[in-house]
Design goal:
CATH class: Alpha Beta
CATH architecture: 3-Layer(aba) Sandwich
Structural class: alpha/beta
Distance between the termini: 30 Å
Family: Belongs to the methyltransferase superfamily. RNA methyltransferase RsmG family.
Mean pLDDT: 89
Subcellular location: Cytoplasm
Radius of gyration: 17 Å
Shape: globular
Main location: cytoplasm
Number of domains: 1
Strand content: 15-25%
Pfam family, one: GidB
Low-confidence stretches: 219-238
Order of helices and strands: HHEHEHEEHEHHEE
CATH superfamily: Vaccinia Virus protein VP39
Number of strands: 7
Helix content: 25-40%
EC number: 2.1.1.-
Strand order of the largest sheet: 3-2-1-4-5-7-6
Number of helices: 7
């Protein structure tokens, strides 16, 4: 595949030097198959780097080293595949219900040789009680209230929901007050990421448990499926 006008020079600030080629290949996937299969709009191609790839890569600023991450509603792999490229120390599980999207995610992970990626087909709530993660992330999936219902049952007691959001996040937090209390969450914190790198910085909201000792799920070890040690890229829930 051909590149998308070459790699954005700012990528050197957020991707390790030995992962830049992978980031460029992923951009080519988005600009080609991503558009053809309806995962990315054709008008997004000229701004793939700033609006999508770099925008997602800076999310790594608030994700600890060596943890297990679930990206729910992963779509074209934003931010999940980007994080897998930028942060090879992370174990990334991409959770997506639509077959055409999981097929795309599997093909990209295979082509890029991303051994730290697992693809699961299904809604996030289908894995409640089965899987647990240190970080559960998402991008443009739902308002914070619904996101809490889908994400928090996947967050281990010491983990966090870390979601990419827009400028209306403070309003979303206010509207989700009852849901935050229902789940026993601490007050959310909001971060501005990519300062000095991006033209438009990334906004991320982080939600943790107010009392981790009272969280009694998931009933399996954190970071993976029952009986699994991870590493597979082609696990799907049909």
């Amino acid at each position: 595949m051909e590149g998308v006008g070459g790699i954005d020079p700012r990528a050197e600030k957020v991707f390790p030097a030995d992962r830049l080629e992978l980031a460029e290949k992923y951009a080519a996937w988005l600009a080609d198959a991503g558009v053809v299969r309806g995962l990315i709009g054709p008008r997004e191609v000229p701004r793939l780097w700033d609006r999508h790839i770099l925008n997602c890569a800076v999310l790594g600023e608030v994700i600890p080293v060596g943890v297990a991450v679930a990206d729910i509603g992963s779509g074209a792999g934003l931010p999940g595949l980007v994080l897998a490229i930028a942060r090879p120390d992370l174990q990334i599980t991409l959770i997506e219900p639509l077959l055409r999207r999981t097929t795309f995610l599997e093909e990209v992970a295979e082509d890029l040789g991303l051994e730290n990626v697992t693809v699961l087909r299904g809604r996030a709530d289908a894995f409640h009680g089965e899987l647990g993660f240190d970080v559960v992330t998402s991008r443009a999936v739902a308002g914070l209230g619904k996101l809490l219902d889908w994400s928090m049952p996947l967050v281990v007691p010491t983990g966090a929901l870390v979601a990419m959001k827009g400028s209306s996040i403070e309003t979303e937090i206010e509207e989700a007050d009852a849901t935050l209390k229902k789940w026993g969450c601490a007050p959310p914190s909001v971060s501005e990421l990519g300062v000095g790198v991006l033209e438009t910085t990334t906004v991320a909201v982080r939600v943790v448990w107010s009392d981790p000792a009272r969280v009694d799920w998931p009933p399996v070890p954190k970071g993976g499926q029952k009986g699994s040690k991870g590493g597979s890229r082609k696990k799907k829930r049909r």
